Amino acid sequence: MREVASFIILSGAILLTPPAKAELREFKTPDGKSVMAEIVGYNAKLGKVELKRENGKRVKVKPSVFVEEDQQYITDW
Protein backbone atom coordinates (compact mmCIF):
# COMPACT_ATOMS: atom_id res chain seq x y z
CA MET A 1 0.00 0.00 0.00
CA ARG A 2 2.82 2.37 0.83
CA GLU A 3 4.31 1.76 -2.66
CA VAL A 4 1.04 2.86 -4.27
CA ALA A 5 0.96 6.05 -2.18
CA SER A 6 4.57 6.82 -3.10
CA PHE A 7 3.77 6.29 -6.78
CA ILE A 8 0.77 8.62 -6.61
CA ILE A 9 2.79 11.35 -4.89
CA LEU A 10 5.64 10.99 -7.41
CA SER A 11 3.21 11.04 -10.35
CA GLY A 12 1.61 14.22 -9.02
CA ALA A 13 4.99 15.88 -8.65
CA ILE A 14 5.89 15.01 -12.23
CA LEU A 15 2.60 16.40 -13.53
CA LEU A 16 3.08 19.65 -11.60
CA THR A 17 6.63 20.16 -12.85
CA PRO A 18 6.64 22.78 -15.62
CA PRO A 19 8.07 21.65 -18.96
CA ALA A 20 11.68 22.51 -19.71
CA LYS A 21 12.09 25.90 -21.31
CA ALA A 22 12.89 25.75 -24.99
CA GLU A 23 16.44 26.58 -25.92
CA LEU A 24 16.44 29.39 -28.46
CA ARG A 25 19.61 29.71 -30.47
CA GLU A 26 20.82 32.06 -33.14
CA PHE A 27 21.34 30.06 -36.33
CA LYS A 28 23.53 31.87 -38.86
CA THR A 29 23.89 31.56 -42.62
CA PRO A 30 27.19 32.09 -44.47
CA ASP A 31 25.85 35.35 -45.96
CA GLY A 32 25.41 36.88 -42.50
CA LYS A 33 21.67 36.40 -41.98
CA SER A 34 20.42 34.78 -38.80
CA VAL A 35 17.30 33.43 -37.17
CA MET A 36 16.46 32.83 -33.50
CA ALA A 37 14.90 29.38 -33.21
CA GLU A 38 14.86 26.08 -31.38
CA ILE A 39 15.20 22.64 -32.89
CA VAL A 40 12.01 20.62 -32.58
CA GLY A 41 12.83 17.73 -34.87
CA TYR A 42 14.98 16.17 -37.55
CA ASN A 43 13.81 14.11 -40.51
CA ALA A 44 16.76 11.93 -41.54
CA LYS A 45 14.90 10.64 -44.59
CA LEU A 46 14.48 14.17 -45.98
CA GLY A 47 17.70 15.45 -44.41
CA LYS A 48 15.89 18.43 -42.90
CA VAL A 49 15.82 19.96 -39.45
CA GLU A 50 12.59 21.45 -38.12
CA LEU A 51 13.00 24.75 -36.33
CA LYS A 52 10.48 26.72 -34.31
CA ARG A 53 11.16 30.42 -34.67
CA GLU A 54 10.59 33.04 -31.95
CA ASN A 55 7.23 33.93 -33.48
CA GLY A 56 6.09 30.29 -33.27
CA LYS A 57 6.35 29.60 -36.99
CA ARG A 58 7.89 26.23 -37.84
CA VAL A 59 10.20 25.77 -40.79
CA LYS A 60 12.03 22.75 -42.22
CA VAL A 61 15.42 23.38 -43.81
CA LYS A 62 18.56 21.50 -44.74
CA PRO A 63 21.27 22.01 -42.11
CA SER A 64 23.69 22.93 -44.91
CA VAL A 65 22.07 26.40 -45.16
CA PHE A 66 23.77 27.28 -41.86
CA VAL A 67 27.39 27.93 -40.93
CA GLU A 68 29.53 24.94 -39.93
CA GLU A 69 29.18 25.62 -36.19
CA ASP A 70 25.38 25.49 -36.44
CA GLN A 71 25.51 22.37 -38.60
CA GLN A 72 27.54 20.71 -35.86
CA TYR A 73 25.03 21.84 -33.23
CA ILE A 74 22.23 20.25 -35.27
CA THR A 75 24.24 17.03 -35.65
CA ASP A 76 24.90 16.90 -31.89
CA TRP A 77 21.26 17.54 -31.10
Could you explain the architecture of this structure?
With 77 residues, the protein is an alpha+beta fold. Helices cover 31% and strands 31% of the residues. It has two helices and four strands, in the order H-E-E-E-E-H. A four-stranded antiparallel β-sheet has the order 1-2-3-4, with no helix packed on it. Strand 2 and strand 3 form a beta hairpin. The longest helix is centred in the first third of the chain and has 15 residues. 6% of the residues are buried. The model has no long low-confidence stretch (mean pLDDT 83).
Low-confidence stretches: none
The proportion of residues in beta strands is 25-35%
The level of helicity is: 25-40%
Mean pLDDT: 83
Number of helices: 2
Distance between the termini: 42 Å
SS content category: alpha+beta
Task: Give the strand order, joined by hyphens, for the main sheet.
Answer: 1-2-3-4
Order of helices and strands: HEEEEH
Q: Please state the overall shape, judged from the principal axes of the Cα atoms.
A: globular
Radius of gyration of CA atoms, rounded to a whole number: 18 Å
What kind of sheet is the major sheet?
Answer: 4 strands, antiparallel
Work out the number of β strands: 4
